[in-house]
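#structure-requests
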Amino acid sequence: MINLAVASACGMLAMPGHAQQAPAEQPQEEVKTVTVSGSRIAARGFTQPTPTTTLSSADLDKSAKPNIFESLIELPALQGSTGRTTNTFSTSSGIQGLSSLSLRGLGTLRTLTLLDGQRVVGANVTGVTDVSQFPQLLVKRVDVVTGGASASYGSDAIGGVVNFITDKKFTGFKANVAGGETKYHDDKSGTLQAAWGKGFVDDRLHVTLSGEFTKQNGIDSPGFGQVGAGGRTWYNNPALQESTKDMQAAGLPRYRSIVNAQHIQYAKYGLITNGPLKGTAFGPGGTPYPFQYGTDCVGNFCIGGDRSGSVGAGTNLAMNFKRQVAYTRVSWDLDADNEIYVTGNWAQVTSAFSPNPGAAKQGNLSIRCDNAYLPASVAAGCASGYPSGVMSVGTANAEFPANINVHPTRTQRRLVAGANGKFKLFDKEWSYDAYAEHGENKTIIRVNDITLNPRYNFAIDAIKDPATGQIVCRSAAARAAGCQPINIFGDVPINMPGWNYIAPSNGPLQHTDSTQNVVSANINGDVAQGWAGPISVAFGAEWRREDYSVFGDPYGAGVALESPYTAAHPADPTLSTTGDNWFAGNYHNGKGAFNVKEAYVEFNIPFLKSATFGEANLNIADREEKYSTAGKARAWKLGATWQTPVDGLRVRAVSSKDVRAPNLSELFAAMTVTNQAVNNNQGQSIQIQQRNVGNPSLKPEEARNNSFGLVLSQPSWARNFNFSVDYYDIKVKNVISSLNPQQEVDLCYGGNQQVCSAVSINGPAGTNYVLAQSFNFASLHTRGVDFELAYRKNMGDFGLPGSVTLRGLASRMIHSISDPGVPGTTPIEGAGAMTGATPKWKAMVSQSWDGLLGGRLGLSLTERWISAGKFNNEYIECQTNCPLPTAAHPTIYDNHMPGAVYFDLGGNYNVNQQVTAYFKVDNLADRAPVLVPQTNLSLALNPAVYDSVGRTYRVGLRVNF
């Protein structure tokens, strides 16, 4: 990836007016003074072997995003991050609205995100941080370490480290005011940021304050049918149509991608799906009519027909999002070289979105022929045509008065006290930093306008009371518990007492408290003068404790007697006492904690300094860790750099062992129970309880991370040219991954004693269970090549004003292989699979022209490119004479997925030395997203790869006094 020196130069060159301050052919002195985040040793320039990308404050300003997170995820190395456009379909994941970074497509769990080199309390029980909770206006640069860095920074840095560096001595006042909206007049946004800093008592006391507010209104659901949000025309009901077994035996592919898809298992206001009345739908007032299925009906889908009840477009494209951050830093200089400080951060991030309209029931409702709401003609046909007296009905439940809506709120409180500076020992100068941190994050997720499954089932089973003639719930027990009937047949306004019964106002709730305490100390300096240069060392120790507690509402968690919400949830015998009563959002209770003690040492040893052979140094690091849960772990790093005799050419290489310890969720997840059937390996199918629960016996994941790179930096024949190429190879073993119940049973019968401890299937009926836990079975292997190129030219050489900077970053993913590690399964290649997060190529190229109009105007154009790929690399593409599909290798008619190019245009104008106006247009051509069809009728987007919002305009004003 881009070398730190290269990136720093690019950031500096991009600053408006810089071309007027330094001639084009002069070396960039500031390049040599930036400390590398890939190491604990304060080395200058890019002498460290670990590749690092840097975005300066000037780069972030040019990006002009409401949230720094949105700027970072455009970097090619960042793949698989989560944000406000991802997980908008999810009710129960717990990560909705969480802005978390992922490197190399290895997941947010394997990327360590730091603030000023310090850990930040997680915003989720998985321990991942929320970048939106960081103070962003004071960030002067972001270092993205794209190699393994566990030896230097600790657990979770398998994919790398993202380190946010703030301006700790900011003096003056600055502010940023911005607003924007899309071409479709939605996702309107507003940002207000301000920071103030001042020195007192002869500048020994320094106080910095900042406050930030950002609001993005999101893109709301258009509701039911084949429609697009806000007038977008690209949504066309895509789906994967699955052929029958006979068709597959005749050589046709298992899957075919279709558009204008119509699901045949439900309609907008009800559809009979079996028997002689199959195809009868219900319209205005409950009037029955023949449903329009469309053509080419195979499996669950037809093409065309009545698509008014489809739910795919009902998912929000982007969440309604609000972030509020208040930050302060107070420092006292003990002397010219030493300071003590305290920082405090309060942040609250709230989101709101709708995962889907209604609550689709796909032909799985059993309706009795005497249901009081059935039209007379349908009731008569049911009585004569269904000997069992029961028919199947599917519905989108479009009569519901509101869509399901989810509201996550994350509130962080973080306090850090520390000291840093320099001291002399044995005639050597040493640097140190030490800090203690206490962080808390409270996450509350509320879900509104969602139904309780048991109550819904009782409410739709309605009869006429023989005594009163009133329509009531059939079940006497349900009536005694307050059951109110509802009519699901036709476009009929729902009975509001019935709605309040099936969708109580106190909907699903999850309350999570996460706490982090850290004590850390680091020292570095030169221990000796070697013949090739000073030998440097860094060493330190850290203690950390993480804990969490979470509870859900009793309808989801099943703990009514223990819940603080008992009074709001009166006893109801129709509901399950073990929870899982909601349509979605069944949150459970749990708690857990661990602590870790660790110490590390790192050496930087110059071993070659020759006019003939160049200069070289060795970088070695070792870290020992001891977890209270997972036991001991070790990380190490061995790297080297060689400044070759070739003008400007440097070679670097690093090999490291990196670790990720199991997080609180994986260790201590609360138990949830569902009923499943498994084969006991003796030809018998038995009913078992699937008990999903954490596994306190998990061990750390271990990764071997190798990289090799070449850097050409400002050679004498091209002073403003920089280029780097780095090859990386990351293998992760003991990957924490879960198995399904049948896999566990098979492994147990195969002799795996660790799994057998989680299986009990030979007891009396009703006592058999399988603990669906995570195990250290899986493995990951990813490798690829990163490229960076930067060039700056003073346009005065051509008689033109200002300077032009060209910058390009690209990542080529060669392999991204996930192996479940379970007998009978095969590894999965994710590189180029466009349903995932790792396209084969991801690139970003920008051209900036600064110093126009007397140094006042700067313009920039950016191209973001995603290469074409496949729907799934494991699928076999064929049209005829297809082989029989297998579970590992299904067949598909067309496995190709197109790539995409996005153009962004921006500019800034310096009104005066203190005031700058700017604008930005993202996705200038309004490139529509590529649709990714699924086997269900969903929105079928992959916002982790494609832009799903469309053209967006933003304008703003920055002041700096």
